[in-house]
C-alpha cells in the first residue's frame, strides 16, 4: 500500500496555475538567453547538488563546489564530503540522460542505479542494493526515533508498488504533485541503508525532467529544500507519523512541495534576469576598453568561485598563451586578483568589479554566485 495522491485544494490549484505560468516564462526566457546561460546552468547544477547533500550533513567549501560538481576536479576518494557532491552530480547527470530517453521505462533498477550513483563512495552502505535489515531515523532532539521504516522483508514488494505507480499511477495529476508523491513514496519506504533522502530527491527530479519541458536544474527544488530544511523535515514527519503509515493524509506534503516549486521558479526567473544584466554590464566594460569580446567570458567566470587558465581557454576556444595574456590584461586593469601559483592558479573577480556589478544589479539583488 502507498500513500494516496491528495486532491488539489483551491489554494493548490491556484498555485499550480501560477507554477505553469512561471515555467512557461522560464522556458521562454531560457530560449532567448545569451551565451551566459551555460555558465548559469552549471552554477545551478552545482548548487542543487550541494544543497541536497548539505541536508544530510556533507559540506564542501564554496570555492570548490563548481569544479567538483562539473567533474573538472575529481575529489580524493577518501574525502566523503567532496565525494558526496561528485556522486550526487553524477546521479543528476544520469537523470539528464534519462529525461529524454525515448525507450525509458520505470524499473526498480532505475532507482537502484541512481542510488549507486549517489552513494558510490559509501561502500559499506551497499550502494545500489535494498537494505537487508530494519532502519530507524534518529531524532535530532533525542528520545524515540523520528521515523521507523517498514521491515526489510517488505522493501522489495513495496518498491515494486512504487515502481508500478511511477510507471502508470496518477498520470492525470500535475507533474509537481506527482513528483512530490514519488519523493514521499521512496523516502517513506526508506529502502536503503543510507542515502534515502538523496535518492528520493533525485527520483523527484527525474519525474519532473521526464515531462520534457525544462532541464532538471530549472525545475528541481533541492535549493529550496536546502534553505528550508527544518520545514522540510517537519512536514515529512507530520505526514509520516513516525513510521510507515500510508493511510495517512499526504496533503500537507503536496502543499509544501508545490509552494517550493513556486518559490524556486520565481527565484530562477530573478537569476536569469540578473545574469542577463550582469553579462550586458561586462560586455559594455570590455567594449569601452576595445578588448576582444572573449574577455567577457573570463570576467563572468571569475565571478563564479574563480577561474583557471585551462577552463577559460576551453570555454573561449583560445590557446593557453592567449589565455595567459588575457588574464594579464585583466590583472593589470585590477578587474581580477590571482590566487595560488602554478597549476593551482585561479583568478577571482576583484572587489571593485563586484562593487560595480552590485550597483548595476541594484541593491538587494544577488546572483547565484553570492555577489552581495
Overview of this structure, please?
This protein is mostly helical and 372 residues long. It has two domains: 10-268, Fido-like domain (Fic-like fold, Orthogonal Bundle); 289-361, Arc Repressor Mutant, subunit A (Orthogonal Bundle). It has 16 helices and four strands. It has helices at residues 10-31, 37-55, 65-69, 80-99, 108-119, 155-168, 175-189, 196-210, 216-219, 222-227, 229-240, 251-288, 295-302, 309-316, 320-332, 351-361, and strands spanning 136-137, 147-148, 336-339, 346-349. Strands 1-2 form a two-stranded antiparallel ribbon. β3 (336-339) and β4 form a beta hairpin. Mean pLDDT is 92; it is low at 364-372.
Find the CATH superfamily of the largest domain: Fido-like domain
DSSP helical segment count:
16
| CATH-scheme architecture of the largest domain | Orthogonal Bundle
How would you write the strand order of the largest sheet? 1-2
The share of residues in extended strands comes to: under 5%
Radius of gyration computed on alpha carbons: 22 Å
| Total separate domains | 2
Termini separation: 48 Å
Outline: globular
Give the uncertain stretches in residue-range form.
364-372
Helix residue percentage? 55-70%
CATH C-level class of the largest domain = Mainly Alpha
Question: What is the chain-wise order of helices and strands?
Answer: HHHHHEEHHHHHHHHHHEEH
Q: Got a strand count?
A: 4
Main sheet characteristics: 2 strands, antiparallel
**Class by helix and strand content?**
mainly alpha
CATH topology of the largest domain: Fic-like fold
Mean pLDDT: 92
